[in-house]
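look at this:
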Amino acid sequence: MSALNLRIEKDMAIIEFDQPDSKVNVLNKDTMRELDAAIDAVLGKSEIKALLIVSKKEGIFIAGADIKEVEDITSAGDAKEKAEKGKAILDKINNSGLVTVAVINGVCLGGGLELALACKYRVAGFSDKVKLGLPEVKLGIIPGFGGTQRLPRITGLTRGLNMILSGEMISGKDALKCGLVDRLFPEVRLVEDSIEFTRGILQKTVHTGRRENKKLFFVLLEDTPFGRAILFYQARKNVLKKTKGFYPAPLKAIEVIRRTYGKDFKAGSRIESEAFGELAVTDVSKNLIKVFYLNEEFKKLPWVAADIKPDKIDKCGIIGAGVMGGGIAQLVSFYDIPSRLKDINYEALKSALRTAKGLFDYAVKKKILRQHQADHKMGLISPTTTYRGFENTGIVIEAVVEDLNIKQKIFKELSQVVSPTTVLASNTSSLPIIDVAQAADHPERAVGLHFFNPVHRMPLVEVIRSEKSGDRALATTIAFARRIGKVVIVVKDVPGFLINRILLSYMNEAGFLFEEGMDIRCIDRIARDFGMPMGPIELVDEVGIDVGYKVAKMLESSYGPRMRVAPVLEKVKEKGLFGKKSKAGFYLHKGNKKEPNPVIYGLVGSSRPGRISDETALKRMIYIMVNEAARCLEEKVADRPQTVDIGMIMGTGFPPFRAGLLRYADSVGIGNIIKDLENFEKGLGEQRFKPCNYLIDIRDKRGGFYGTV
């Protein structure tokens, strides 16, 4: 079946994209071939004066190029050739001499936006579904169909550069402001109004005002060699600050635009194609594409039987107005779900509301929300010190301290208040859900719902299913979590669940490295150089040493000597050094600055062993996580390696350019990891390094977590 249809209306041609058996339109070799033929057919008719490109998919113009075809590229030359072929087709539109109009009815990304940029005019609907962007850097590449050449020329260098380097989408309204689209029309009459708009251009009754005159500042910045030098320097500086140099695509995009902006278009296009080719075959790009697929899969993965229908949540109850509870309330209200926030402490409620307001104010400042939208959402949070108002909640999330008795008391009280169908979810980070659920009248409606801090930023939630959790409660919780923008993994009900169990082994190992003589700054630097968002010691301080130690002791109690807590953690806690929240932990915290706390060096004694190499330290921290992840698969805490990898990326910030903890392990070689673990076990006499049976088994049978490598 054809992916597009060409129809002629007098002197006007309309190409309609409607990819069969797909919810979206994408540009692949077949659709590009059809597009090329359609353009040739249009150019062969001298009576045609205008060409409109529209989509028949609801809310979708063109979602971009087919990522599978990018993934399959094996040589830079092949990638360059594909880019050049695509450009040649789009250049036919650009050079046709016709009045060309892209009619954007929804998502218009990547190659889809590059197609629209090749048109002389772009119009869009008023709908919130309209999103325009060039997200290629998120896949480790740059636009390859002329995006680096056309976008800055149309929107201005500053805006175009920002869009390409961030990969973020903008709304139709913002696109109109920056000149990326020429008109916005009502969604219901988008095609009809676009035809009238085109007819008006042909008849010279419609005049399109391009971007307003630049302010002097932007003239100096964009239109002078000195100004552009400053702009590109600052852009590079910002990219390096954000990416630490691990991602070559945004740096390459800066280089391409710097070399080509304001110069010959054809020469610039060739430079873009060469850069695209170089990037398309890098490990970073291949890994980011794997993560993209993983993310898309987990957005819709069916964790329960298809015939189990979730309840729609119209109101959410939250118990506990601390950092987590307050964060959950703000997130829920951001997605327009009313929340009832309970705490026994009025000051905690006030603090939670202040924090929520601060986040909404920031969203207004960043133009994510308008003020009236933020005010409305803020008004959806209703504070209370009683259970009044919980009667009609569809889900209640308990987010109090990690104390089993307190959590059980709350679940027992809630059972007397809420509907028998209300889901009771505990935001515990380590306590078994089955123990918490024992206090509920209906334990089948109790689940774990583990958010990660900060709630509004971290994209992951763990949904924990106890042996008594019902399918309907599970389905409702998953649907609710996805509705509030989270990536969901479902894990088995064991102490520490999946992510904390793996992450604590990493943080704990850092404690042992410190005791053996490594400087904390060195430990953290090694982890950051690997790509972790922060070092393990920094993370201990961020989480809170008292909290981290408590969870670590729970894991030691559950899993025995291999989870033995590094003694220094207890010593630091006993000193009352709780980390960032107390302004002193392993580091002394002064605003955004920190320096090693001299007190901690006196806690580990003077007879500390000699130097440990950076390579050894990194292997100990990362491989111990690999070993623990393998145990989690062995015990069916996680159902497959993909669950571990998406969880570690979305829940801990494990570097996406490495494609996940277990993908990274496969790239190193399971045999090599086992050999190093055995050496650590022998050299240090520590059971925690003993390779688990699952790890040995996959080495011998499959070669890797993902099969033969």
